Amino acid sequence: MKKSIVVLLMAVMVVGVSACSNSEEAATTQQKPDPFVLVEGGTFMNAKSWFYGKNIKIPSFYIGRYEVSQREWIEVMGGNPSQLKSNSLPVEMVSWYDAVAYCNKRSELEGYEPYYTIDSAAKDPDNTSEHDDLKWIVTINEGADGYRLPTAAEWEYAAGGGQASKGYLYSGSNKADEVAWNWMNAGDKRLSGNWNWPAIESNHNRTKAIGTKKANELGLYDMSGNVREWCWDWYVDAEGNSGSYRVVKGGGWIGDVSNNEISFQGKFEANGFGPDQGFRVVRGE
Fold first, then answer.
1. Most exposed residue of 85, 148, 192, 229, measured as fewest CB within 10 angstroms of its CB?
2. Contact between residue 103 and residue 115 where contact means Cβ atoms under 8 Å apart
3. Residues whose CB is less than 8 angstroms from the CB of residue 40 and which lie 6 or more positions away in sequence, other chains included
4. Residue 38 CB: number of other CB atoms within 10 A?
5. Cα-based distances in Å from 13 to 8, 10, 18, 44, 119
6. CA distance 129 to 138
């Protein structure tokens, strides 16, 4: 009889432990949503977008739910260039060249065909920058399924909510504070007035952990604010000139609130980097 009771108690304990383990696993799964979001293709629905009404149709694609974190960067590249270090923060201090190199290396590690061919020994004749000392030639491998940078149109389409758009000015809201880290709210206290670097510095402004603001209609975080995000495209000025800068989108913790608007067209030289400069990756459907 005693032996039967002991066996029964052990069985109950095993079931209990198993149930607890399953419960913990389920909770962990709930806390870690799919790191990529499928963006259903179509025309621009958000009238606040710079591309709205231009008869542009975006094919479906996957985009990172979050900006590339320092943990993800370290796992792929081995080091951490960021000025403000923490695994939960977005990687920063990365150039456009660093970003495309990351895309290729991550593709290789995960068994995808690299999306880019990178010739770091040659100089890109289309790069007219006076300050870019690298000027790598980076070309696209058509049909490759690897990671890549979004085009400016893809980025803006996703930031604006895609086919689920509610027409927000920022990515996920008409109120910047709900979705965007910027120079006014990324420090010890909220700042006001005109953009002021001494005030930003003394307020200890910095990047914030990814995904801590409200997501947009597609479940994407930090597409307004935190760090500016590299895009594939050359920046084209009002006269139609290009070749000096690559497009950056979304604004960052240093930037003005206007930079957080989904339509804002930022620019940065491809070899440039800073503590508010990061990126997120995409893949084809």
1. 192
2. yes
3. 60, 162, 163
4. 13
5. 9, 5, 8, 56, 61
6. 15
Residue type, position 216, single letter: N
Nearest in space to 152 (alpha carbons), one of 50, 258, 69: 50
CA distance 103 to 187: 31
Nearest alpha-carbon partner for 154 in 231, 220, 255: 231
- Assess contact for 118 and 136: CB atoms under 8 A: yes
| 207 token code pair | 């990047």
Sorted by sequence, the CB contacts under 8 Å of residue 170 that are 6+ apart come out as: 176, 178, 179, 180, 224, 260, 261, 262
Sign of CA dihedral 21, 22, 23, 28: positive
- Look at the alpha carbons of 236, 239, 240, 241 in this order and tell me if their dihedral is positive or negative: negative
Over residues 160-199, the pLDDT tens digits come to 999 999 999 999 999 999 999 999 999 999 999 999 999 9
34-182+209-284 maps to CATH 3.30.420.130: no
pLDDT score, position 141: 97
- The total of other beta-carbon atoms located within 10 Å of residue 257's CB is 18
Q: pTM of the prediction?
A: 0.88
- Both tokens assigned to 250: 């979304």
Tokens of 48: 């606040």
Pairing of strands 36-39, 61-64: antiparallel
Residue of 284, 269, 261 lying closest to 50 (CA atoms): 261
